[in-house]
C-alpha cells in the first residue's frame, strides 16, 4: 500500500472556527517561517559566528604583516605643453590615454631601475644593515651581498602599485613592504624618479624645440619680408591707394555714384515744385497753399499791399455805396496790385524752371563722367583681387612668424627655469610624499573579522538548513494545518503543575494530576482546549454532532491518551452522557490518568469473564463512564476486529450520547485503522515540536486507506511561550499568546 503524503478530500468538512488552511500571503508566511527557524536555532548560529570570527581573527594575527605607504603625484596635463606646435588631444579619451601612458611609465623597468638605485644608495631606508629584499619580506635576515640592480628592480616591481585617483590628474604610487620605513622609502623613490625623469625629458625637449624654432624663425622671417615687398610693389604698379585694395577709378566711381544719387533726388524735388507752381499760376490759385515756393521780397510786399487794400475796400463798402469814388479808387488800386502780383508769380515760375534745367544738366554731366569710367572697371577689379591675395599671403606669413616667436620666447624661458631648478618646468610634482604607516595594511583585523562573520553566518545558515531538512517538525498549529492540509480542531497547551509534575509528561505515563488540573482550573487554557476540541468536532460533523470519536496519533507519547481523557471529562461535564473506552490493549495508560485500581477491564468484558457493571467505572466529578484496559493483550487487533466488540459498541451507542475511543498509535499497530471504520469522526493528535512531518503524513495516509472519517488534527503539548516566538505563520493562534495569556483564569 502507498502511504505517500496524503491529500485532503475535496468534501472534507472544515470547522467554522478552525484555523485557515492556506496562507494567502506567501511572502509573509515565508518570513514568519524563517523567523521561527532562527529562534529555534539561534544558539547554533551564534556559536558558528563566534567560532568563525575567532578563527578569522587568529588567522589574521598569525599572518606576516605588510605595510602600505602612498605618494601622490600631480601630472601635467598635455594641453599645458610649453611649445604647442600641434593641437593636443582633447576630450575625456585623450586625457585618459595620457594618464594611462604615465601610469605605464611609472611601472616601466627603466624608471623602477632608477628608483632601485636611489634605494640602494639611501642610508635611511636601505643602509648597510638592511637590503631591499629584507625590507620587502619584513624581517628577513639581510643577505651578505646586496641584490643586483635587476633583482632589486624585480623586487620593487612587486612592491609597487600605481592607480589613478578618480578622473583627476593625480596618480597614487603605493608601495607594500614588511617594514613601514621601507614602504615609505620605496614609494617616495619611485615618485622622485618619475619627477626627475619628467623634468629631464622636458628640458631636453625644450632645448630641441629651441634649435628647431630658431631655424624655422629665420626661414619664416625671409618669407614674410618677400611677401611684404611683393605687396608694396604691386600697389605702386597699379595705383592702389591703400592696403584695402581700392583703385583711384574705383574710388571716383563710388564718389560719382553718390553725387548722381543726390543730384537725381534734388532734380525730382525741383520738378515737383515747378509743376505745382505752374498749376497754381495757371489756375489762379492762392500762392499761400504752396509755402516756400514764392518766397521773394517783391511778392511778399505785393501780397501785403493786396491784403491792406482788401481790408480798406471792405470798410468803405460798409459806409458807402458801390459807385462811390472812394470805393472805385480802392477797387482800381486792388486790381493794379493783383496784376503786379501775377507778373511776379510768373517771373518766380521762370526762375524755378531755370533752376530745374540747371540741375538736370548737372545730373547729365555726372552720368556722362560715370560712363567714361566704366571701361576701366574690369582692370581695377582684377588688380584688387591680386592685391588681396598678396596681402593674405603676407598676413599668413606674419601670423606664423609671431606664433613661432612667442613659442620661442616661452621655450627659452622654461628651459632657463628648468636648468635653474624651477619645479614648474618639471611638469609633474609630488603633492603628498609617503610617510611610514602607523599600522599594517595587511592583514586587516576588521576586514578579516567581517569576512569571518559573514562566512560563518553563511555556514551556520547552511548547517541550519540541513538540520531543518533532516529534522522536520511542526512548530505551530498554522504550520501543521498548511503541511497536513487539514483543519485544526484544537490546540492543547503543556501544563506544569506544582512540583514539576506535568499533565503531559515526557514519557509513557499519564498521572492523576491531569484530572486534578481539570478540576482545579476549569476556566484555564488547558480545559478550554478540550472544549474547543469538542466544539470543533461538533461543527466538523455535518448535520449532527458525532456520537463516536476516535483519538489517534502517529507515534507513542504524543498526548493521545491525555487528549481522550480531557475531551471525555469536559464533554461529560457539559451534560452529555459519555463513555470512554481504553482500546489501547497493547500499552494501556488511561486508568493511571484517573487513578483506577480495579482489576476488571474492557478485555474481561469482551472475553466474558466480567460483566459490564463490574468493569464500568464512573468519574465522580463529571459523571463520565469509562472502561479501562487493565492488562496488555497480545492479540489486540483480533479482539478489536471481532463481532463481539462491534456488538458491544453498538450496544454502548444506544446508552450513551458520545463514545470516545483511545487507540494505539497508527504506525506501529493496525488497531486504530480497525476502530476508525466504525466511528463518526477521528481526531488526529500531532505533538508540538516532536511529531515528524513524514510520520504524521504517513499515518494520515494509512487512515484514509481505511476510509477513516478524519475530521482534523489536534496539536498537543504546546509550550505557549515558546510557540509564540517560534510560530512560522501569522495564522498560528499562539503567535498572539502574549496578548491573551492573561485572559484565562489562573
Structure description:
This protein has 746 residues and is an alpha/beta fold. Helices cover 57% and strands 9% of the residues. The strands form two sheets. An eight-stranded mixed beta sheet has the order 5-12-11-6-10-7-9-8, with helices on both faces. It has a four-stranded antiparallel beta sheet with strand order 2-3-1-4. The radius of gyration is 62 Å and the shape is elongated. The two termini are 49 Å apart. The model is unreliable at 1-24, 85-90, 124-133, 135-142 and 499-511 (pLDDT under 50).
Which labels suit this protein?
24 helices; 746 residues; alpha/beta; eight-stranded mixed beta sheet; elongated; disordered N terminus; four-stranded antiparallel beta sheet
The whole-angstrom Rg is 62 Å
Structural class by helix and strand composition: alpha/beta
Q: Give the rounded overall mean pLDDT.
A: 77
Name the helicity range. 55-70%
| Distinct helical segment count | 24
The proportion of residues in beta strands is: 5-15%
Give the low-pLDDT segments.
Answer: 1-24, 85-90, 124-133, 135-142, 499-511
What is the β-strand count? 12
Distance between the first and last residues' Cα: 49 Å
What's the arrangement of strands in the largest beta sheet? 5-12-11-6-10-7-9-8
Amino acid at each position: 500500500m502507498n502511504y505517500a503524503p496524503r491529500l485532503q478530500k475535496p468534501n472534507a468538512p472544515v470547522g467554522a472556527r478552525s484555523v485557515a488552511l492556506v496562507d494567502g500571503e506567501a511572502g509573509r508566511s515565508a518570513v514568519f517561517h524563517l523567523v521561527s527557524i532562527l529562534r529555534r536555532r539561534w544558539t547554533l548560529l551564534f556559536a558558528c559566528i563566534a567560532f568563525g570570527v575567532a578563527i578569522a581573527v587568529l588567522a589574521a594575527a598569525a599572518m606576516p604583516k605588510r605595510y602600505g605607504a602612498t605618494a601622490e603625484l600631480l601630472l601635467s596635463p598635455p594641453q599645458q605643453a610649453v611649445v604647442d606646435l600641434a593641437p593636443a588631444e582633447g576630450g575625456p579619451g585623450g586625457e585618459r590615454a595620457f594618464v594611462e601612458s604615465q601610469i605605464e611609465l611609472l611601472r616601466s623597468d627603466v624608471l623602477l631601475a632608477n628608483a632601485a638605485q636611489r634605494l640602494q644608495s639611501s642610508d635611511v631606508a636601505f643602509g648597510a644593515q638592511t637590503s631591499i629584499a629584507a625590507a620587502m619580506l619584513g624581517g628577513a635576515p639581510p643577505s651578505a651581498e646586496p641584490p643586483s640592480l635587476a633583482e632589486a628592480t624585480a623586487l620593487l616591481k612587486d612592491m609597487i602599485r600605481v592607480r589613478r585617483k578618480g578622473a583627476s590628474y593625480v596618480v597614487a604610487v603605493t608601495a607594500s613592504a614588511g617594514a613601514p620605513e621601507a614602504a615609505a622609502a620605496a614609494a617616495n623613490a619611485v615618485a622622485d624618479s618619475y619627477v626627475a625623469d619628467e623634468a629631464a625629458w622636458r628640458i631636453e625637449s625644450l632645448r630641441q624645440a629651441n634649435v628647431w624654432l630658431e631655424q624655422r624663425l629665420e626661414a619664416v622671417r625671409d618669407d614674410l619680408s618677400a611677401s611684404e615687398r611683393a605687396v608694396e610693389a604691386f600697389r605702386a604698379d597699379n595705383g592702389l591707394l591703400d592696403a584695402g585694395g581700392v583703385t583711384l577709378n574705383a574710388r571716383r566711381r563710388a564718389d560719382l555714384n553718390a553725387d548722381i544719387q543726390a543730384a537725381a533726388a534734388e532734380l525730382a524735388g525741383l520738378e515737383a515744385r515747378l509743376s505745382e507752381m505752374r498749376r497754381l499760376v495757371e489756375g489762379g490759385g492762392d500762392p499761400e497753399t504752396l509755402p516756400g515756393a514764392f518766397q521773394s521780397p517783391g511778392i511778399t510786399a505785393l501780397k501785403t499791399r493786396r491784403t491792406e487794400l482788401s481790408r480798406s475796400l471792405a470798410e468803405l463798402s460798409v459806409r458807402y455805396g458801390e459807385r462811390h469814388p472812394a470805393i472805385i479808387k480802392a477797387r482800381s488800386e486792388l486790381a493794379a496790385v493783383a496784376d503786379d502780383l501775377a507778373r511776379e508769380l510768373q517771373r518766380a515760375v521762370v526762375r524755378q524752371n531755370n533752376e530745374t534745367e540747371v540741375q538736370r544738366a548737372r545730373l547729365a554731366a555726372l552720368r556722362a563722367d560715370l560712363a567714361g569710367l566704366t571701361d576701366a572697371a574690369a582692370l581695377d577689379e582684377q588688380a584688387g583681387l591680386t592685391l588681396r591675395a598678396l596681402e593674405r599671403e603676407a598676413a599668413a606669413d606674419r601670423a606664423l612668424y609671431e606664433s613661432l616667436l612667442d613659442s620661442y620666447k616661452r621655450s627659452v624661458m622654461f628651459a632657463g627655469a628648468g636648468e635653474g631648478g624651477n619645479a614648474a618646468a618639471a611638469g609633474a610634482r609630488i603633492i603628498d610624499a609617503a610617510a611610514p604607516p602607523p599600522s599594517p595594511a595587511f592583514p586587516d583585523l576588521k576586514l578579516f573579522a567581517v569576512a569571518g562573520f559573514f562566512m560563518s553566518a553563511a555556514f551556520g545558515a547552511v548547517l541550519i538548513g540541513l538540520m531543518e531538512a533532516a529534522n522536520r517538525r511542526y512548530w505551530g498549529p498554522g504550520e501543521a494545518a498548511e503541511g497536513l492540509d487539514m483543519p485544526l480542531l484544537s490546540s492543547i497547551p503543556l501544563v506544569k503543575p506544582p512540583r514539576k509534575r506535568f499533565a503531559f509528561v515526557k514519557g509513557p505515563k499519564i498521572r492523576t494530576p491531569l484530572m486534578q488540573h481539570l478540576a482545579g482550573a476549569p476556566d484555564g487554557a488547558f480545559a478550554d482546549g478540550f472544549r474547543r476540541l469538542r466544539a470543533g468536532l461538533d461543527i466538523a460533523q455535518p448535520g449532527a454532532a458525532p456520537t463516536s470519536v476516535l483519538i489517534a496519533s502517529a507515534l507513542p507519547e504524543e498526548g493521545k491518551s491525555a487528549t481522550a481523557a480531557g475531551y471525555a471529562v469536559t464533554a461529560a461535564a457539559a451534560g452529555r452522557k459519555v463513555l470512554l473506552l481504553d482500546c489501547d490493549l497493547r500499552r494501556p495508560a488511561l486508568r493511571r490518568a484517573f487513578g483506577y485500581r480495579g482489576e476488571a477491564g474492557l478485555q474481561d468484558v469482551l472475553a466474558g469473564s466480567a460483566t459490564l457493571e463490574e468493569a464500568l467505572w464512573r468519574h465522580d466529578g463529571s459523571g463520565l463512564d469509562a472502561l479501562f484496559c487493565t492488562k496488555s493483550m497480545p492479540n489486540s487487533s483480533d479482539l478489536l476486529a471481532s463481532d463481539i466488540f462491534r456488538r458491544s459498541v453498538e450496544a454502548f451507542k444506544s446508552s450513551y450520547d458520545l463514545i470516545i475511543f483511545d487507540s494505539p498509535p497508527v504506525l506501529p499497530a493496525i488497531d486504530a485503522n480497525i476502530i476508525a471504520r466504525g466511528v463518526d469522526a477521528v481526531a488526529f493528535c500531532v505533538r508540538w515540536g516532536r511529531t515528524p512531518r513524514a510520520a504524521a503524513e504517513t499515518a494520515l495516509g494509512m487512515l484514509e486507506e481505511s476510509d477513516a472519517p478524519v475530521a482534523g488534527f489536534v496539536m498537543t503539548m504546546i509550550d505557549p511561550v515558546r510557540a509564540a516566538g517560534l510560530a512560522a505563520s501569522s495564522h498560528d493562534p499562539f503567535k498572539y499568546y502574549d496578548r491573551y495569556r492573561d485572559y484565562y483564569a489562573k
